[in-house]
Amino acid sequence: MSKIELVPVASLRPALYNPREADGERLELVRLSLQKLGFLLPLVATVDGEILSGHQRHSEAVRMGATHVPVMLVDVPEAQRRGINILFNRATNDITITATEQDMADALSSAGVRTLAETLPDIPVDSPAFFPCMSAQMAEVAPLARQNVFSFVRHAANVGRMLARLHVQLPIVATPDGTVVNGVGRLEAAARKGRKQIAVVTLAEDKAALARAMLNLLSMDFRFTGENADFLRYGSFRRAWLKRSFLGTAFVLPVFSHKRLADVSLADPHFLAKWKAACGENILDFGSGQGDEARMLREAGIRVTEFEPYPAERNIVSRERGRLFAMQFLAAVRRKEAFSAIFVSSVLNSVPFPEDREHVLRIVAALCSPETVVYAAARGKNGSDWQWLTTGEAMSARASRVCGFKLASEDGIVLGDIAANPKAQKFFGKEEFHALFARHFGEVTVGKADSMVTARCRNPLFMLPQQLAESLRFEFNLPYPGNKRMGLAKLALEAFSVRLGLNLGAI
Predict the structure, then answer these.
(1) What span, in angstroms and rounded, lies between the C-alpha atoms of 253 and 107?
(2) Model-level pTM?
(3) In this structure, is residue 218 part of a structural domain?
(4) Domain named ParB-like N-terminal: which ranges (predicted)?
């Protein structure tokens, strides 16, 4: 078991980047939980005292007059703390992957926690009983797993597996007869890993119902604003494992609406001829990721301009390379490069906020002539990943191992990859995808291809110069790690002004 220590409350500090939004009513419940149950689980903090998990419990304990709190200290590099903080904010809830913030709030309201608490005495602050997690004992995993197997929750196990990878082994909470009150995910992860023992905090039976509600259902809402919003923006980069060896859906769409992507090759002269007839030979890859499709197209003799604000090497975003891509792209804009086709391939699903997607499509539309065709593809609600996230039933082993959760900020938004590089993913319905493009193009055809939604667009609609200027100022001053910015908004305004015969910088 990872060591738990009692430390002075003054030795800890909250993480300023914690995206949880506390409200008065739920803070009262945190206080009630501490009064009646104490610290069943420890706080988690870095070795230098920055809290990763347990901000509200720490603050309420201080208000109650506590001088010490139980803490599990972990050695976490500063660059990874935001992501791990997000993971810990859902790490101790035994909930299904389909549970939303509203579902949890409704279930907590129905649990009658105040009535349950009335039957229990208050625990003296700073007494040994206030810190039950300090008395955790090691127990055999196998019999506990067999006893609780019908309570296992796959999503909770996925989170437990992630915690174990971070060398964080929080105890589970169980009644004297071995019924797990909280931590079935951690127990299942331990059993699947073959661990022999796990730490158990034993809880009296008369406290079990209250503890089950407080530990599994009491949760603050996520709010990604300011620096936390920027964290999701530069976390949108294409992951290293998504290296492409064949064209993605958007690039196959000009020829085939439904075709297994691995069966399509630019080396096939018939496919290439049809592709050139549909797309021309001077295209823009807007959001080119790792540049795999651009490379394949160039090898086939196609002229390709790329724009990728978040290129990454070994999953580390490079501002220098992002600026270089942007400057090369803006040079093409300034010289009035005429694009026969523009591809927006697996881009919009990685853009975390709806207003950001509008900026992208305004810029794309501004680059189109009446003859330009736009081909787009994004993750749809018709795929296995969305089914797992909304029904708890996975159509593939890979989907069932996804560790993420839906955010309340927008329908279809999921936060994933939460232990390493948290990334927001937007899943689109077909009608929603159509409405998004119809705000910018007069001719829009939307379809489905496997787990993706697709769009073919022509005839860009008129937009106010003020709108385009706003979007350019946003897109070419995107954030990067270390509180840095792209810093190319002025150059972008100048390039588009030359191209369009406007004075966007004066707007």
Answers:
(1) 44
(2) 0.86
(3) no
(4) 5-90
